[in-house]
Amino acid sequence: MKKFVILAIIILLVGGYLGRNNIKSILGISPASSQSQTVQSTPSTSSAIAPSDNIYLIKKDPSKGQYLTDFQGTALYTYDKDTKGVSNCTGTCARIWPFYTSGATAEKLLPTNISVITRSDGSKQFAWKRMPLYYYSADKKPSDITGDGVGGVWHIVKP
């Protein structure tokens, strides 16, 4: 019994030191708090400004200004041919512009302006102000924003 109490105290102390989100990260669980974190980025192209519930970050590019990224710093885009709550990017489009779905579930508490839509195939996708969010497959590293302006219909998300 004494060993159990000592072990419980150690766990509480370590938990208090590491914090709930760090413990979740160690266990491979996506944290869902509003605790501030920073993201390493290439100084010449962007820097992290503020995270929001580990669903998105706001980064800044010297020429394009502030834009939204996923929680790992990869740029997010919207498509002019979508409508609020509806993704019109399927097939080849979806292979070039994969949708942002990592952890998308309507059951979790979401930050302001973030929602989850249901695609025509039943899968879930994050949306910004109800507009579906996408990645661009040609972006190879988090600081890339090469999809902005493609075809005149793809745009980085401006907060």
How much is the average pLDDT? Answer: 74
Shape: globular
Order of helices and strands: HHEEEEHEEEE
Structural class: alpha+beta
How many runs of DSSP E, i.e. beta strands?
A: 8
How many distinct helices? Answer: 3
Helical proportion, percent range: 10-25%
Tally of distinct domains = 2
Strand content: 15-25%
Instruction: Describe the strand arrangement of the main beta sheet, using strand numbers.
Output: 1-2-3
Summarize the biggest pleated sheet.
Answer: 3 strands, antiparallel
Taking the alpha carbons of the first and last residues, their distance comes to 54 Å
Low-confidence runs: 3-8, 10-52
Search tags:
single chain, 159 residues, alpha+beta, 3 helices, 8 strands, 18% helix, globular, disordered N terminus
Describe the structure in your own words.
The protein has helices at residues 2-18, 20-26, 92-96, and strands at 47-52, 56-61, 65-70, 77-79, 114-118, 124-128, 131-132, 154-156. The protein contains three helices and eight strands. Strand 5 (114-118) and strand 6 (124-128) form a beta hairpin. By secondary structure, the protein is an alpha+beta fold. Residues 3-8 and 10-52 have low confidence and may be disordered. Strands 1-2-3 form a three-stranded antiparallel sheet, with no helix packed on it. The chain folds into two domains: 1-31, no CATH class; 33-156, no CATH class. It is globular.
